[in-house]
User: What shape does this take?
Amino acid sequence: MKRRPLIAGNWKMYKTVPETLAYIETFKPLVAGVEDRDIMLAPPFTSLDAAERALEGSNIALGAQNCHYADEGAFTGEISPRMLADIGVTYVILGHSERRHLFGESNELIRKKVESVLRYELIPILCIGETLEEREAGKTLSVLESQLKEGLAGFSAEDLKNLVIAYEPVWAIGTGKTATPEQAQEAHAFCRKILAEMFGEDFSERTRILYGGSVKPENVVGLMARPDIDGALVGGASLKPDSFAKIVNFGRME
Ligand code: PGA
Assistant: This one.
């Protein structure tokens, strides 16, 4: 089945509001003609509102990088899915490896966050991926399986109809070491098999699985040529409008 590619930029903790607006002004015309793939930018929380206004009427959707699971409450420093929906966010990245490893997020917490974004009809991008230690110990597939099974426990295929998965091997994030297209394809095909077991063949065939980890204009084409790789979650290379536009436009004539 042909799935519509999604190219998503995760800015992490980079860019002020003026920097965000300058980026969008340059980036928008570079991707203005793109109709056959989805584009998403996830700036930091402080830039979301300004970015939403600047992106209005464009073909670029807005994403957040994280959220709390409650709608509101005494959670100092947190942002709720209700607040994100209110300002026009479409996607929410959940369970990014930096959240898992630097901030101690567990599969159970991430599952609660998935549930919370679904309440507001936001689209979860659930990130999964093994560390180098886990890969070297031969545990890659079992780690992916438990991240999927625990992160998505208790939902139906209907609940998750817009779900996006991002496979991001932790050892490839921000390191310049990309998984080879073969390594990524193997992991993606395995995730699709697990999704089929959990939610049925149809669901699994429809669900987009992005690859993330040092994606650049130079390596995106080889990754995207693989049958189970449906897009990219891009960190470092999404911070410059020209390099991110090249990734969005992968496979087209220069
Ligand atoms: P990177 O980050 O492209 O800088 O490796 C990817 C990510 O963390 O989503």
User: Anything to note?
Assistant: The chain has eleven helices and eight strands. Strands lie at 6-10, 38-42, 60-64, 91-94, 123-128, 164-167, 208-212, 231-234.
